[in-house]
Amino acid sequence: MNRSANSILILGNPGSRRATEARSFLDSSAELKNLGTEVVWENIFETDRVEARPDRVLIVGGDGTVRLAVNWLQQQDWQCPVAIIPAGTGNNLCKGLGFPLDLEQSLKIALHGEGSRSIDTISISADGEDWGQMLQITSTGLPAKVTHRFDRWRKFPLIKHPVRWLGDSFYRLLALQTLLMETRRNRSARIIIDGEELETFGPAVFVANEATIGGGFTPCPKANLSDGLLDLCVLPKVSYFEAFSLFREISAGRHLDRFPEVVYRQGREVTLIQESHPVLVDGDVLGAPEVLELRVVPAGLQLITD
Ligand SMILES: [Mg+2]
Predict the structure, then answer these.
(1) Gap from CA of 223 to ligand 1 centroid (Å)
(2) How many Å lie between the centroid of ligand 1 and the Cα of residue 13?
(3) Stretch 134-149: mean pLDDT
(4) Which of 54, 98, 169, 183 has the fewest Cβ atoms within 10 Å of its own Cβ atom?
(5) pLDDT given at position 257
(6) How remote is the CA of residue 142 from the centroid of ligand 1, in Å?
(7) Separation of 20 CA from ligand 1 center, angstroms?
(8) Can you name the CATH fold of 124-298?
(9) What integer best gives the mean pLDDT of the chain?
């Protein structure tokens, strides 16, 4: 890959506090100033102003911003090398890839990295509508409820600061509360993975490219971002008391051994048919479809590495 970049496009979400802080850091960085290259900043929601294909793209933000930016690049049909400057709440993708979370180190790699790493992406359609690509994990069931509650608390005056500070710990507390208190914890679904049909009943279904989800959970411990496969995990119906244990084991990614009722498969295509229920894609609820179709796109994204 040719690393001599003549134009750099930086995509970020100006509405995000962390991304704005990262932008201030980047703007004052001598590394970027001394580059002698055209650098253009664009709001991820106003990309219609970008006309020419850049030589490399820096995405400044969290997992949601990365997903939006990758989808936009694919719509342009631009195969640009991409670097992530982690500036989100979870930064799960960077954590999963073992990329540095430090702004200075990330910027160095983004500007001068000589290596590249291909990762798979997963294309999703919901009730026949194209939802584009996801990079990490899609889930339905309790995780969508937990995230909805977490997002509500995160915007609540007075509470939002301690919630931000507690981050994963607060998310985990909400997850435990939801798992224990939810009156309708379990839902049935019909899932078809590479032609195999499964009838499932439980609190959550995960389809993953990457092992983890926010809050320090590892629902798909066998997932690998570059193996050309997606991983399916369906949590089983559990009693009130077993819920504590399940919660602990998913945190450590040990639930496959400890709960033999867990359904776990790897494949290339998944169709999930459910009663309309919110679906969480890379940390954002995108809708509440009845039919979800997911297909792995091997090596769908090229990332810049050191
Ligand atoms: Mg995989």
Answers:
(1) 5
(2) 28
(3) 85
(4) 183
(5) 93
(6) 23
(7) 32
(8) Tumour Suppressor Smad4 (2.60.200)
(9) 88
How remote is the CA of residue 43 from the centroid of ligand 1, in Å? 30
Most confident range (mean pLDDT) of 62-71, 120-129, 216-225 is 120-129
Q: Domain residues of the chain, as ranges?
A: 7-113, 124-298
**Cα 122 to ligand 1 centroid, rounded to whole Å:** 9
Residues 301 and 71: beta-carbon distance below 8 Å: no
Ligand 1 centroid–CA 124 distance in Å is 15
Distance 41 CA to ligand 1 centre (A): 32
Please tell me the distance between residue 222's alpha carbon and the centre of ligand 1 in angstroms. Answer: 8
Mean pLDDT score, 293-305: 95
- 228-239 pLDDT, tens digit each: 999 999 999 888
CA distance 131 to 75: 12
Distance 39 CA to ligand 1 centre (A): 34
- For residue 164, the model assigns a pLDDT of 66
Percent of the chain surpassing pLDDT 90: 51
From the CA of 268, how far away is ligand 1's center (Å)?
Answer: 9
Q: From ligand 1's centre to the CA of 267, what distance in Å?
A: 9
Cα 135 to averaged position of ligand 1 atoms, centre (Å): 10
Most confident of the following: 73-82, 92-101, 219-228, 246-255: 219-228
DSSP-assigned letters across all residues of 142-187: HHHHHHHHHHHHHTSTTTHHHHHHHTHHHHHHHHHHHHHH-SS--E
- Average the pLDDT over 90-96 and give the result: 87
Answer whether CATH 3.40.50.10330 is correct for domain 7-113. Answer: yes
